[in-house]
Amino acid sequence: MNSQQLVREVEVLPPELQQQVFDFVSFLRKQQLKQQLTKRTVGEYRDKIHIADDFDEPLGDDFWLG
């Protein structure tokens, strides 16, 4: 099915059903975008994050007291 066929099929529907088709297509596009955004690759953050050697050390009073 090509886009022209799809448009013809939607055009013959009553306005309420056209709105449902529109809502469904919007839903599908959002789902697709979500999937694209959540895809991760191994090592994509390598060398971008640094954890200090004293990470586990308690914070000094100057941090807590300002």
Fold and architecture overview:
The protein is mainly alpha-helical. The chain has a domain at 12-37. It has helices spanning 3-11, 15-38, 61-65. It is elongated, with a radius of gyration of 26 Å.
Key phrases:
66 residues; mainly alpha
Number of strands: 0
Sheet of most strands: none
Structural class: mainly alpha
Count of helical regions: 3
Shape assignment: elongated
> Which oligomeric state applies?
single chain
Can you give the mean pLDDT? 91
Short description:
The chain is mainly α and 66 residues long. It contains three helices and no strands. The mean pLDDT is 91.
Secondary-structure blueprint:
Blueprint: H1 3-11, H2 15-38, H3 61-65
